[in-house]
Design a protein that fits this description.
Elements: H1 7-20, E1 26-32, H2 43-48, E2 53-58, H3 65-77, E3 81-84, H4 95-113, E4 121-127, H5 133-143, E5 148-150, E6 160-165, E7 168-171, E8 175-176, H6 184-192, H7 203-217, H8 219-226, H9 230-233, H10 237-248, H11 259-271, H12 284-289
Parallel strand pairs: 1-2, 1-4, 2-3, 4-7, 4-8
Antiparallel strand pairs: 5-6, 6-7
Helix pairs in contact: 7-8, 7-10, 7-11, 10-11
Bound molecules: guanosine-5'-diphosphate (GDP).
Length: about 290
């Protein structure tokens, strides 16, 4: 599926990222655990080079737990610190401070030996839209009693920092990265999970592609959710959407099946995890074994 992207937005978000990143010691890139590769923007790796980074596999409640484990191990082998999060239900966030300390340990010891006072470590949250950046920040802020620092009166409005621990502060605004659309398959996966505004998408075509994916990769989940017979499962994805619409009684005034409504429902249910916990992509080695 062809998805349009607007370079105008990109220039502005890129500039903001480049300014904010200068203020921190460590960056957390939030990705969606259902697409840990497609929702990651390699630009950050270029900008941040070999400095300490954490990948947060968020929405792990919606992903296949075995796949999330495999992705964690895979990113750790690439040199990232990795946490598995379910920010919505406040799970996994408490691992972040400890991981920051361990990733910055050498640098802080070096600084201390040179007689440099260790100020609190500073980190920022980044990621493409809708991966859960604000939810992570709000949960962390809530836990820390929303203890904001910085922004002294009389001084030009500066950055707001949330003190998480005595030795750790978090920038309260996330760094927004843009999705990578060069590869149409990546764009489609980002659209499947709902991280692209649906207004710019053809939802029917997207749902057909999702059904085709499920027929191929997770036929069981599809048949269980919608009560499809084996013969129905083998039909074209367009026909499968009609069967589902029929089962759910999605009819228009003249009696024809309202496939647009069915398309939206299937996408919504998939995104909410109602078909089950599904990861859409695997690390390279695992993909080869499948
Ligand atoms: P942002 O655009 O990256 O800041 O994303 P938001 O924090 O606004 O989250 C986008 C949507 O994902 C919201 O509806 C959140 O409630 C939801 N969300 C965030 N984290 C999780 C999670 O761990 N699990 C689930 N199921 N939903 C989440």
């Amino acid at each position: 599926m062809e998805i349009q992207w607007f370079p105008g937005h990109m220039t502005k978000t890129r500039r903001m990222m480049e300014e904010d990143i200068k203020l921190v010691d460590l960056v957390v890139e939030v990705v969606d655990a259902r697409i840990p590769f497609s929702s990651k923007n390699p630009y950050l790796d270029t900008l941040w080079q070999r400095r300490p980074r954490i990948i947060a596999l968020n929405k792990s409640d919606l992903a296949d737990p075995d796949a999330t484990k495999a992705w964690k191990a895979w990113y750790e082998r690439q040199g990232f610190g990795v946490v598995e999060l379910d920010a919505l239900h406040n799970r996994g966030l408490q691992q972040i401070p400890e991981l920051c300390r361990s990733l910055l340990k050498d640098k802080r010891e070096r600084d201390a030996r040179r007689g440099m006072q260790n100020r609190p470590m500073r980190l920022m949250i980044t990621g493409i839209p809708n991966v859960g950046k604000s939810t992570v920040i709000n949960q962390v802020a809530g836990r820390a009693g929303a203890a904001k620092t910085g922004n002294k009166p009389g001084v030009t409005r500066g950055k707001q920092w949330i003190r998480i621990k005595k030795d750790l502060e978090l920038l309260d605004t996330p760094g927004i990265l843009w999705p990578k659309f060069e590869d149409p398959q990546i764009g489609t996966r980002i659209a499947f999970i709902g991280s692209i505004k649906d207004e710019i998408l053809d939802l029917y075509t997207l749902a057909v592609e999702l059904v085709a994916f499920l027929q191929r990769e997770r036929p069981q989940m599809l048949s269980q959710r919608y009560g499809l017979e084996d013969s129905e499962l083998r039909a074209t994805p367009e026909a499968v959407l009609e069967f589902i619409g029929n089962r759910r009684g999605h009819r228009m005034a003249g009696g024809a099946i309202d496939v647009e409504r069915t398309a939206r429902m299937v996408l919504d249910e998939f995104r909410m995890g109602k078909l089950g916990r599904i990861t859409l992509e695997y690390p390279p080695e695992e993909a080869l074994q499948r």
